[in-house]
Design a protein that fits this description.
11 helices, alpha+beta, 273 residues
């Protein structure tokens, strides 16, 4: 296939996409033409195979192949409706994989949607990693603020470390040392650097609650503040359990330091392009 043909097909596939309720999708009727199928009956067999592949992959067909009606012109100003299907990028990928690869358009689509799907997965992963880095920075800021508040109320650095560990035990049913062993965290590193985003945010919420309540209740001394922090972590744990999330059973996440370096490296590469 010549480069001019590839460029033309690329532009055609790009122009055919539309956004429906925030999701990029294509019309099956348009994809039919772009893949070189002249008859809907023949193309519908390919769609059926793609739906089967979707189901076998554990995905919901309705999420990727919703049925719709399409209005077309029938000549002399008349219009009528025909059956159509909205296709997500993943659905288009499956259709291309189940299509006739002897057709140049299908061969191109197989590569096009494979690359597009992979690119979307990478972007999604980077967004999730950035969210986790931001959550970790927010937790550090919250704990720093809480430490300052507690220092003014008779709690030193050693006491603060104990209070924080008691909070971890209330949230995870494991003290900090046991949690580190379970997650494989080096002794010299904070456990939060290896927690998934939701666990980081749970710790942050509990610390925020402690910060607010210590001031609102005018608490002083280690014991009442420790009790407050434990209660807040227990409350956050109860909320997670109610939604079917058991924090100590969540798998460890990648070292936050490595994630930060990766994001910075990607940013530099983007700026130098």
């Amino acid at each position: 296939m010549k480069s001019a043909e590839i460029k033309m097909l690329f532009e055609q596939f790009e122009r055919a996409s539309a956004e429906v309720e925030g999701v990029e999708c294509w019309s099956a009727r348009e994809i039919q033409q772009l893949l070189g199928y002249s008859k809907w009956e023949n193309f519908s067999h390919v769609v059926d195979k793609a739906k089967e592949s979707c189901q076998n992959a554990g995905q919901k067909i309705g999420d990727h192949f919703p049925d719709v009606r399409k209005v077309i012109e029938a000549g002399k100003g008349a219009v009528h409706e025909i059956d159509d299907i909205l296709l997500t990028r993943y659905a288009c990928y499956l259709i291309a994989q189940n299509g006739d690869s002897k057709k140049e358009q299908v061969a191109f689509a197989q590569s096009y949607f494979a690359v597009q799907t992979r690119r979307a997965e990478i972007i999604e992963q980077r967004v999730l990693e950035y969210e986790r880095v931001q959550a970790r920075a927010k937790l550090a800021e919250t704990e720093k603020m809480l430490s300052g508040i507690l220092y003014e109320r008779g709690v030193n650095d050693k006491d603060f470390a104990i209070i924080r560990s008691k909070g971890d035990q209330a949230l995870f049913r494991l003290n900090t040392a046991m949690l580190k062993r379970k997650l494989g965290v080096p002794n010299s590193r904070p456990v939060a650097d290896f927690l998934p985003t939701i666990s980081i945010k749970a710790k942050d919420l509990a610390a925020e609650m402690t910060s607010v309540n210590v001031q609102a209740k005018d608490l002083h001394g280690v014991h009442p503040i420790e009790t407050e922090h434990v209660d807040n972590n227990q409350a956050v744990r109860a909320m997670l359990l109610e939604r079917g999330i058991v924090p100590e059973q969540l798998p460890p996440a990648e070292d936050i330091k490595k994630v930060e370096r990766k994001l910075k490296s990607d940013e530099k590469k983007t700026l130098t392009k």
